[in-house]
What we know:
β7, α9 and β8 (262-265) form a beta-alpha-beta unit. By secondary structure, this protein is of the alpha/beta class. The protein has one domain: Alpha-Beta Barrel (TIM Barrel), CATH 3.20.20. It is 43% helix and 13% strand. It is globular.
Amino acid sequence: MNRREFSVAAACAALSQAQGRLKAQPRQAGSVHFSVMLWTLEKLAPFDRCLEMVAQAGYQGVELVGEFQHWSPEERVRTQARLRSLGLVVDAMSGVKAGFAVPQESDVFRAQFAEHLRFARDLASERVILLSGNRVPGIGAGIQRQTSLDNLTWAAEQAARAKIEVLIEPIDLLENPAIFLSTVTDAFELVRTVGAPNLRVLYDLYHEQRSYGNLVEKLENNIDLVGLIHVADVPGRDEPGTGEINYDQVYRVLGRLGYKHWIAMEFYPTAEPVASLTKARLEAQRGLRGRAYGL
């Protein structure tokens, strides 16, 4: 039995012993909320079981990456009911495949984004995540920047009508060497230039560390534009404490700066997943409160 198979078996055993304790912790106004990007668990268990694991670990939300695009209306209703029964919400969702920085994809981007907003309303998600797409050979970076500004201005206006927030996410150059938006530094500049109150940056600490580092200073200088934090350690995309990022310090800084949005775990659990997710959440909460790191 390999590590992943062991994790699946252990998760099923733990869940079968705790069917009465699956509801997530309630959300409290003015506090940081915690969620899990579900794709990191999809190889461990079926979708509904993944929801149960997230709830059992004490999280309030889940994030999706396009699963909903293949659901029937009945499946969307059933999923919403299951989420409510577990005390979970869909706090953010991605799935727009066209890039906002690619001129020849602008029409497709806008059509896909409009559809994405409909999915977000159906699933009561208050945030949507967008990617830039790749650099285009033969045109200058200035053209792609202007395309980004035009498309993000339009997207923010459309989303505002639905009371939805738009988050743009840079991807590191090791994962995608051709990506146009690869650092939060450029993402913050785009958001400031657009100036829409419902347009913010998804600060993925894993991606930023891999290519650029200097995580804390960028938080301190731009915390007003951060709408969501994604968490995984480097290298390996495993849970905090397995790599080089000092998450204790990051959480302490977020607490000092008064961050009150969502923190989403986007890592591969290397141990039993409910235990791993629970530990990661507790460490984050203690760091945010300025307490000693660890259990």
